Amino acid sequence: MQLNKSENEAQPSSFLIKQTKLGDETLDQINGFWFLPEHVSGVKRVLNEFEPRQDDVILASLPKTCTTWLKSLVYSIVNRSSLGSLEHSPHDLVPFLELQVYKEKESPKRLENNNAQFGNGRRIFGTHIPYQMLGTTLETSDCRVVYVTRNPKDTLNWMWHFENEQKKDEEEAWPLEEAVGNFCKGIFPFGPYYEHVLGYKNASLKNRGKVLFITYEELAKDTETHVKRLAEFLGCGFGGEENEKVAEIVKSCSFEVLSNHVMNKSEDPCSDSRQATSGDYKNYLNPQAIGRVNSLTREKFHTYGFMYGI
Question: Cα–Cα distance between 182 and 204 in angstroms, integer?
Fold first, then answer.
């Protein structure tokens, strides 16, 4: 079953259409998706230059959907004998293609050695690029893609918090009402949210052996089960060491442990410093805002049989 045909078709990405504002940020639009201007060149380089290998692992997501946690878990699953490496930022262990590997103009050295320093050499990368744009590249190999998403209201709420946390004391806060309006109009970094999620959801239905779609909520509810599921999908199941090693990975990647490492003691813009509590949006969004997002979720997801987000 394909949820929405138009959302799963790869498109060219060689031109900018228009610009808009997200709080104090300017966003550029490429074929219906929004990017910070400083990310555009990296995105284009990935689309033009990246050649995935057969055993590569690509972790895809929107910002503020618990990417950091997924990076930690997947890195630990693939490199289970190197759990001590988690003292490093997950964004060093698993760099973003467009934000780190292809950010600079020179040859992306991290493309070859990002795991050589810490792990077993199998390449693991992160990306926020929509499947509608990156799918053609990913489908050139048998690389594995893992996509994580999160409840739209929590995603919106966490982005609003993140943007305001970056502001200086004298700067005016980004109004929550404005953030809700932007989100519902599809104005979100690497978004619109719904189209981004559906792109990878459709890909997982079409290519079940290559694309694994998982939600933050199910991962948080039963982490050990989904760690085993991730390991099987990536071709590195636990076998006889399953229970002990799975528990060790879950503990090593817990928020309490990760928050003590350098990733949350620095000003790394990729890092997530707030614990991702499901349903936290209820403490901030009023009933009108919740109803507005829920209505859009029914239209975008439920209409196509994807019963998620409410």
Answer: 28
Span 288-297, pLDDT tens digits: 999 999 999 9
Q: Specify the pLDDT at position 268.
A: 40
What number of other Cβ atoms are within 10 A of residue 104's Cβ?
Answer: 13
Compute the distance between CA of residue 306 and CA of residue 288 in angstroms, rounded to an integer: 23
d(CA 8, CA 133): 9
Contact 242, 229 (CB under 8 A): no
Cα–Cα distance, 202 to 205 (Å, whole number): 5
Closest CA to 67 of 84, 90, 87, 85: 90
Phi and psi angles of residue 25, each rounded to the nearest 5 degrees, phi first: -90, 150
Evaluate the CA torsion angle 268, 274, 275, 276 in order and state its sign.
negative
For residue 216 the two structure tokens come to 């933050």
Interior/surface letters 5-43, b for 16+ CB within 10 angstroms, e for the rest: eebbebeebeeeeeeeebbeeebbbbeebbbbeebbebb
What domains does the chain contain, in order, with CATH numbers? Answer: 15-304 (3.40.50.300)
Query: DSSP states of 27-50 as a string?
Result: EEEETTEEE-HHHHHHHHHHHHH-
* Close Cβ partners of 248 (under 8 Å, ≥ 6 residues apart): 83
For residue 17, CA distances in Å to 13, 14, 39 come to 10, 10, 15
CA 22 to chain centre: 19
pTM (two decimals): 0.89
Check pLDDT > 80 for residue 240.
Answer: no
Catalytic residues: 128
